[in-house]
Specification:
With about 170 residues, the chain is mainly alpha-helical. It is built from five helices and no strands. Helix 2 packs parallel to helix 5 and helix 4 packs antiparallel against helix 5. The chain is elongated. The model has no long low-confidence stretch (mean pLDDT about 85).
Length: about 170
Amino acid sequence: MTNFFKKIDKLMIVLQENLCAALFLFLFIMCLLQIVFRNFFGLPAPWTEEFARVGLIYLTFFGAAIGLRNKAHPSVDFLVSKLPLRIGKALDIIAELLVMSVSLVFVVYGSKYIIRMWNDHSTVYYYSKGFWYFGMPISGFLMVIYGIRNVFLDVESIVKNKDLTEGEATNE
């Protein structure tokens, strides 16, 4: 990968990791507030549960995109690791294409779901529940971009007959 693309890739992953860290902190604070309101004040706080749910939805999808970028998604590679490099990378490309197809489903059907949920409103603040699911198509798009990146690295590994994805799995 060229230096320009490496810088863009690093920037995207840093932004996404910081977003996930902020979402996790937000989720933790919402759950903590829920406990405090319920146990110390004897008051229900439905807004904390609602915001925690939305935070968890976004954290799940953006975390999945980071996992795909870092090739941290679950895989059974016992047999693949025993194969020659080029055959293993060819199988990796097939797996990446399958994951990218699921990611495209997130983009297409996530967008349709947002439209479908747009007229359904939150019970606490009465905003559109469509906002809850914006993370699905956005993270699906990021997964497609990361899948293309991973396929590019796998093809380059096949051409050079050298595993170029080892140091690329992290921010190195």
